[in-house]
Structure formats: structure tokens, C-alpha cells
User: Which sequence fits this backbone?
């Protein structure tokens, strides 16, 4: 288990979150990522917003995805992926060099636009420069809501048991 650093952890350096936002903006300006603010109609992912504003250190609550597919909460850097009767929560960035991942069409998983690493819908590494699976976030179900802790990462190579257990079965 790895705790995500907070923005206050280092005031002299740019936070990872700010770096990702700036990088995505630059890449979008050059057309590499396209418009991240509005998914293409019928595209491979849906925009996602938390059900309530996130407080300091609190979990994020999301509606259960109604069907297979990918939903991305850019503000909190969370990817939700429903595949069959399983829902996963992932960190938005590729574990190789922290580039924002892209969903592949038809719920075929994810791909890093920087070096081409590819992942299955459950975050399992397929090919490319990355050396491990996507980072999963703790996820649980509370009635008709999913609860995600975006401050904690499970890395498959450092904590395989928690990584494997980080999913909700519907």
C-alpha cells in the first residue's frame, strides 16, 4: 500500500496532480489527447463527478456505473471501470511515467499515449514500457454507491493481495 503524497508534502515542488493537469493541457493543445473536458459522443469513456465535494482526507462517493465502460473523474484523478459484474477504481496515471491513461474503445482496457503501454479492463499489464499493472484504489460498496479512497494506491508488485482484492462485485 502506498499513500499518495499530499500537495502540502512539498511546497517547493509541483504536486503530481498539478503536473498531470499541466501536461494534459499541453498535450491537448497539440492535439495529442484531444478534448479531455468533453468525451466524444459514443466514445470509450464517460465524464464522472463525485456525488458530493471531497473533504480533506475523506473518501469519494460515486454512483454505480449502469453498464460496462469507463468513467473518469479528472478532478480527483480516478478511473472507474465496470467490466461485467466487477467494478475497479484506478489512479488516472500510468505507473510507468505518470501520464494520464486513455480508455480504449469497446471497454477493451487502457493505453498510455506516451509509450503505448496497454492494460486489460481490470488493470492487468499487457504490453509496453510499463513494468507492472495499473495502480488500483481501495473501493467498496455502500448501498447503491461506490466509495473510493483516492489517497491510497495499491501497487501490484508491492502489495499483490490488496491489489487483487481492490474491486467490487455487483
Assistant:
Amino acid at each position: 500500500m502506498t499513500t499518495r503524497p499530499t500537495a502540502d508534502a512539498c511546497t517547493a515542488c509541483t504536486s503530481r496532480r498539478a503536473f498531470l493537469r499541466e501536461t494534459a493541457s499541453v498535450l491537448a493543445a497539440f492535439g495529442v489527447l484531444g478534448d479531455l473536458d468533453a468525451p466524444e459522443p459514443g466514445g470509450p469513456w464517460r465524464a464522472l463527478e463525485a456525488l458530493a465535494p471531497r473533504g480533506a482526507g475523506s473518501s469519494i462517493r460515486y454512483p454505480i456505473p449502469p453498464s460496462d465502460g469507463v468513467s473518469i473523474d479528472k478532478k480527483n484523478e480516478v478511473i472507474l471501470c465496470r467490466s461485467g459484474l466487477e467494478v475497479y477504481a484506478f489512479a488516472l496515471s500510468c505507473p510507468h511515467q505518470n501520464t494520464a491513461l486513455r480508455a480504449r474503445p469497446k471497454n477493451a482496457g487502457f493505453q498510455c499515449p506516451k509509450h503505448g503501454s496497454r492494460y486489460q479492463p481490470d488493470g492487468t499489464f499487457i504490453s509496453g514500457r510499463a513494468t507492472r499493472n495499473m495502480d488500483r484504489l481501495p473501493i467498496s460498496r455502500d448501498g447503491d454507491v461506490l466509495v473510493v479512497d483516492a489517497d491510497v494506491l495499491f501497487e501490484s508488485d508491492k502489495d499483490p493481495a490488496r491489489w487483487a482484492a481492490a474491486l467490487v462485485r455487483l
Observations:
- The chain has a mean pLDDT of 82.
- The helical segments are 16-29, 160-165.
